Amino acid sequence: MASVRGFRGFRFVAEKVGALDAVLTPPYDVITPAERQELIARSPCNMARLLLPVEKDGLDKYQAAAADLNAWVKAGVLEQDAQESLYLLEQAFTSPEGRRHTRRGFFAVTKLPEDDESVVLGHERTFDGPVEDRLKLTEATQANLGAIFVLYADPDGQLSDRLAPHYEREPDVQASTIDGTTQRMWRVPEVPCVPEFFLDKRLYIADGHHRFETARYHRDRMRAAERPGALRPYDFVLMGFVAFEDPGLVICPPHRLLDMPDGFDGKRFLGALDPWFDVRAAGNDLPKQVETAPGCAFGVAIDGAGNHLITLRDIDRTDLLGNCRGAAWRDLDVAVLHRGIIERILGLPESTQFTYIRDAEQALGAVASGEKGLAFLLRAVRADQVRACAEACEPMPPKSTYFFPKLPSGAVIHRLV
Questions:
Q1: pLDDT tens-digit profile of 158-200?
Q2: Is 280 helix (H, G, I), strand (E, B) or coil?
Q3: Contact criterion met (CB below 8 Å) for 68 and 137
Q4: d(C-alpha 68, C-alpha 366), whole Å
Q5: What are the two backbone dihedrals, phi and then psi, of residue 259, each rounded to the nearest 5 degrees?
Q6: pLDDT digits (tens, 9 = 90+) for 32-53
Q7: Cis? peptide before 261, omega within 30° of 0
Q8: Cα 155 to chain center, whole Å?
């Protein structure tokens, strides 16, 4: 089903830029303004200059990014590999709970599906603003500057076993990125087992839903303009592939911080939970209690009313959530939080704005300091739930997953011309 193949990637030349730590970055959408400033100070060729460009020399920000990219290629800072290749990736990192992990994957390009094909499935809604922004950047640079992070099923280790020997030599690229991840990459000639393996596979977007929609819009525009008689580079998009079964696949829960709602009363709120939830007072060990509680459980910290563990009783979830969404969606703890607690019990709109944070202790600290009124602590969504929602075409609530680490931007670039 999926058409996956190698490509002639553009990569930074270490002799021109020095240590690659200075040029590789996480994806654009997780770089804060302060981090952008730190990153661009590292090198005049840091990827943040392309991913999050600014106006300069009379050019708008998208034209400025294109000018930088073209200048880097012309100066030999970026060079294109001579043959079609796959780019194997190994990421060593510490998860937020302090455990060391290693995750393996690879970069390749995938043919963008046609409108009647369900080859690439997502679990998030997309919004016009981010797509329009990335589309303007793609049209200006004619490049996939960052990869879409996708998952695939390899329960028997068929593909991972075939690729494993390639990781045994010294890597072609090694760098540490701002998120504390050690990135190691190997360029290998395209091997037939990879395209063959994916012929009967679906791909599931972990990160990059907006980049995927952007790539499809760009392809459609280019087809309409050129009316080509054969496949062109813009028919393919850069993806980073990781197996569902990889032991280093880590999904973090984005906890929710909320300003105190008007008229909120902590005791009344806790009482209103009673028909569906068991509520127990908790101390500073609330994050651990959430992780170890059976069933569907949340932590809530309330400014002035302490910490509490909330556990969903053994009920028919349609009683709380309704039946307008499917079973895969109702199975999510985050759906219970949003539809059941935030919207139904608190009476807040679906559009309620949260601050999202991965560190549970920081979330509790924000309430203890009075910076925020409420913190909701969640457990991580499981990979099988991501797959189930994608296959059921049931978008999750916003920011339901945080895959960590992200794929590095700038490790390899796919140009569309």
A1: 999 999 999 999 999 999 999 999 999 999 998 889 999 999 9
A2: strand
A3: no
A4: 40
A5: -65, 150
A6: 999 999 999 999 999 999 999 9
A7: no
A8: 22
Q: Count CB-CB contacts under 10 A for residue 35.
A: 16
Token couple for 77: 């800072």
Residue 228: C-alpha distances to residues 16, 44, 141, 222, 415 (Å) = 37, 37, 20, 9, 18
* CA neighbor of 150 nearest in space, from 208, 194, 191: 208
Give 94-135 pLDDT, tens digit per residue.
988 789 999 999 999 999 999 889 999 999 999 999 999 999
Helix axes 61-74, 128-141, angle to 10 degrees: 40
Q: Which residues pair with 121 in a beta bridge?
A: 204
Q: What's the half-sphere exposure (Cβ side, CA atoms, 13 Å) at 159?
A: 25
Amino acid at position 141, single letter: T
As given in the structure block, the two tokens for residue 49 are: 């200059």
Question: Which two tokens mark 210?
Answer: 């907006």
Q: Side chain identity at 175, as an amino acid letter?
A: A
Tell me the per-residue pLDDT of 181-192, one tens digit each, with 9 for 90 and over. 999 999 999 888
Q: What is the CA radius of gyration of the chain?
A: 23
CA-CA distance, 356 to 254, in Å (whole number)?
A: 6
In 3-state terms, what secondary structure has residue 120?
Answer: strand
